[in-house]
Amino acid sequence: MPILKATHKQTKEHNRNLVLKTIFGAEAISRAEIARVTSLTRPTVSEVMTNLLAEGLVEEVGHGVSIGGKSPILLSLVKDSRYMISLNLGHEEFSGGVVNLRGEIKSKVCLPVSGRDGKQALDLVYEIIDRIIEMDWKPIIGIGVGTPGLVNTREGIVVNAVNLDWQNLPLAQFLKDRYQLPVQIMNDSQAAAIGEYVYGGGYTIGENLVVINVKQGIGAGIVINSRVFQGDGGGAGEIGHVVVKEDGLVCRCGKHGCLETVASARGMVEQAKRLANQYPLSELAKDPERITLESVHSALLTGDPLAQKVVCDAGHYLGAAIAGLLSTLNIQKFILTGDMTQLGQPWLDAICEKVAQGTLAKLAEGTSIMISGLGSENIILGASALMLMDGYSLLFMQPPIL
Ligand SMILES: [Zn+2]
How far apart are the CA of 328 and the centre of ligand 1, in A? Predict the structure, then answer.
């Protein structure tokens, strides 16, 4: 009876995943506790545990406190028993990391993009992974990639990444063929959202979160009920190309006045250059062509009026976009990540001011908007977390369930 066999196999897999998740969610836990938490029988837990111990995924780490009778043996996940290769294809730099089962980045390779796109950008991806594989971390269970642009995660295709000049690129298949490993790819803002959710701390099962990634482009990653919401075409959170200024500057997508043209790092720097002649006393006005995000940041720290103006404007535009998301989704936690976060409190204040103005008071009241504590590592961590969810079902079981 093949159908019954399949069911038995599925049950075994389900039990294994449940036990693994429970161990992942605790520092150390006894078999009895696992049985209690999962509602599996003691013999089932013991059987699963025997297999996990044999695979080296779990180890015995001592004894717990006895509540009558023998003190129980505690078990723990062996965090370095598996590794993942995880990539962040940033605008100026591609980086790759080796990440263990607890989200610790063991080693990193970063290479400048230097304007490379198309096939050359793909070669750069290969070069990073080749270098990591040479480091000989073992065993590697898969490759996760956070890439800019529109991504079909299910098919493993980069549908459109303007900066990299990739259209319908079957990136996952290319990497699978070359490295013979499972591969997961995802939009970078969506990967950042997973990274924040899993490793940013403080999230519990079922919680929602929006991560806004603001650098040369702008994207959002939306986590609903512990899962990234990708929408029908994978493009949920692509807020950077919503037109917010009809007569605005031309965007890299070809339209005019997209959010990116006014609220991204690129847009803000462009704005500073255009307004420089109206602010002759500004430090930035001395050499407008050399204005960068970093120079705007430095000027901001000295109270420079042009820096204040462009940071405030960029924050206001982003705040209006967040107000829209907040009103649509009523999600109460927003995390800001990306290069623009270096602008700190003045930028955050401008954002929050506009959010408060742009939404119902009751919606804004219960909402927190914060700058990420993980920084750009959240993309590498999120891309690696994809592997854990896919192959090991390890994530989203949090400690307080005991
Ligand atoms: Zn655009």
Answer: 21
Three-state SS at 352: helix
Binning the chain into helix, strand and coil, the percentages to the nearest 5 are 45, 20, 30
Q: How far is the CA of 213 from the centre of ligand 1 (A)?
A: 15
The answer to whether the CB of 274 falls within 8 A of the CB of 292 is: no
Q: What percent of the chain has pLDDT over 90?
A: 77
**φ, ψ (nearest 5 deg) of residue 128:** -65, -45
For residue 231, the tally of other CB atoms under 10 A from its CB is: 10
Beta strands in 237-278, from DSSP E residues, in sequence order:
none
Q: Which residues pair with 215 in a beta bridge?
A: none
Is pLDDT above 90 for 1? no
Average pLDDT over residues 248-271: 94
* Residue among 210, 209, 179, 197 nearest 87 (CA): 179
Residue 14's pLDDT is: 86
Residue with tokens 């430095």: 298
Q: What 3-state DSSP class applies to 353?
A: helix
**280 CB burial (10 A radius; 0-12, 13-18, 19+):** exposed
> Given a cut of 90, is residue 66 above it in pLDDT?
no
State the residue for tokens 């109460």.
Answer: 332
Distance 320 CA to ligand 1 centre (A): 17
Ligand 1 centroid vs 60 CA: distance in angstroms? 54
The pTM of the full predicted model, rounded to 2 decimals, is 0.90
